[in-house]
Structure to design on (666 residues):
């Protein structure tokens, strides 16, 4: 193990958009292990939209990230030193290691994911937190019946791409919303969406309407704002909106729901959710997602930045929507 | 029975606010009864906010009211002539007779409510559609646990007054929102609200905050707009919003939800509903509400306009919030 641990700290809170200067790279001396502890070498760091919320001071579903602390983040890696019999050296573990090259843990919150016949990075993506988020929102909130129409915003992202494929596997018409023609092409060609609408196109609302001729029964919402308003206008009676994210508002942009009347008139359910509220369901979800992945029924894309130095830039790119699929940082360059 | 039936027709669609000129009073000849039909003399007509929506041409949960037809409305009255053995002369029946002095029915949609030891007008109010609406929204969507805080907007209205009392009977802290000091006093003095906040007061948001020191677990929402936004800002995690009405927007005023983030961050459920979707539950609800009424646990107020001529004026007054409790028209002056 390297004798120095490089870490990204939160240096300052963003004023509106995040900038690279909000982060600071430091070198720390790795501490020795106490009894019961283990050391993990991080192979992949996950970059996710929720991190943007943690950088603010505002009340959120998790404590805001403190200035001067290591940025929070999901990681997958290998146990390289262990004084904990549950986690032997060589085991692959997924957990919340943060934006750093290595970390020490007592094992709480770590899951062993080795020996399941899948590349380790999937435990940060399609079979990990984003995939489980898609599974929960679609299955437990959206509850689509075969033949229904499911609209997924941020359709090609780490969460949306799984939500859309799970909808299709459930016999639904999956329709995506994504930013830009390339993502929309990928959604239809690779991810099995019946159609995908570019929310940046000037005729977005008409294109959405044309893409859902039978109306919308379920919305898996990652974006908010104008995209959600347009979806609400096309909802069928008793439709469900699984509210997973509001990425349109993460830089402080207002994201009102202007189109409130359909919630009443069409008797809609709108349910916000956070996947970490539902830890008892994770094993069930992971097993199902891993089964789909091994069978090739569920495909995924990754955008991989190389080297810990690249993390802030990759994070900013993800917030701008430049990644395709799951945004990762491979710690070794 | 009078040989002439006076009826209020929809004369024209409102441009923004409703005006009396949107209605026209006509006299019609009552038709003879066919086999299986009965004639009801209307004693009370119910005036309800949903009627405003029917007057527009926009897509709503019910077909819009046609120009030149009798205004829709709930009624209670007495069977005065019958060729239907299920509804003998003298029986009290509640149904959707409309804004007229008498009507002919084949009995479908009529409920017999005589002999239950309550004045007939309650079947249009606390034990009728508004009361059942309160019961459904609170019990099936809000599901408050004892000790939780339940916020009710339009707290003294026909629906809100029952919702607040049912919340209190369930062991909750019921907090009302109403327009004006007189209604707020009535809410606390007569309806058992722990507190009531005047949404017209300049310090509304601070007053609401002070009235819910433990936050809000359930919102029974009849108003929308700024009232709902203020409520969302005070929600506890996993709170529920039973969206029953959006009276703030009935004249075409925009009623955006500006405060969308709490729906995600606090994992809220927002569920629109219409009580007529749930007819199989009406008997259960009516029996429970009638029991509370007979025992004096549930109190109600009525604002009664006299004579069919008064209906449009009373309806406009209700939309302006001038009534206290259930707005009725007693057909006999």
């Amino acid at each position: 193990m390297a004798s120095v641990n490089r870490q990204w700290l939160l240096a300052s809170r963003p004023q509106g958009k995040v900038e690279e200067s909000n982060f600071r790279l430091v070198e720390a001396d790795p501490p020795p292990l106490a009894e019961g502890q283990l050391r993990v070498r991080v192979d992949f760091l996950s970059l996710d939209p929720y991190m943007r919320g943690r950088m603010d001071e505002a009340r959120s579903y998790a404590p805001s990230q403190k200035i001067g602390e290591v940025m929070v983040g999901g990681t997958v890696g290998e146990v390289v030193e262990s004084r904990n019999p549950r986690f032997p050296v060589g085991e692959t573990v997924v957990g919340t290691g943060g934006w750093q090259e290595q970390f020490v843990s007592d094992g709480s919150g770590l899951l062993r994911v080795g020996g399941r016949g899948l590349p380790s990075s999937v435990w940060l993506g399609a079979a990990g937190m984003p995939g489980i988020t898609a599974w929960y929102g679609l299955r437990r909130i959206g509850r689509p019946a075969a033949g229904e129409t499911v609209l997924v915003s941020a359709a090609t992202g780490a969460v949306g791409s799984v939500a859309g494929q799970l909808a299709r596997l459930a016999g639904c018409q999956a329709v995506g919303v994504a930013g830009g023609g390339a993502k929309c092409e990928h959604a239809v060609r690779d991810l099995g969406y019946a159609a995908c609408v570019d929310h940046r196109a000037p005729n977005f609302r008409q294109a959405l309407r044309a893409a859902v001729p039978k109306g919308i029964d379920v919305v898996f919402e990652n974006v908010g704002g104008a995209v959600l308003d347009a979806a609400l206008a096309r909802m069928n009676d008793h439709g469900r909106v699984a509210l997973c994210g509001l990425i349109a508002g993460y830089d402080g942009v207002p994201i009102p729901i202007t189109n409130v009347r359909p919630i009443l008139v069409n008797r809609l359910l709108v349910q916000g959710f956070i996947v970490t509220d539902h830890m008892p369901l994770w094993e069930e979800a992971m097993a199902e997602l891993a089964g789909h992945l091994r069978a090739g029924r569920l495909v995924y894309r990754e955008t991989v930045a190389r080297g810990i130095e690249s993390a802030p830039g990759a994070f900013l790119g993800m917030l701008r929507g430049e990644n395709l699929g799951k945004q990762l940082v491979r710690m070794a360059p």
Remarks:
- Chain A touches chain B at residues 53, 59-61, 224, 237, 243-246, 249, 254-258, 260-261, 263-274, 277 (CB under 8 Å).
- The first strand of chain A starts at residue 5 and ends at 10.
- Residues 129-276 of chain A form a domain with the Rossmann fold fold (CATH 3.40.50.720).
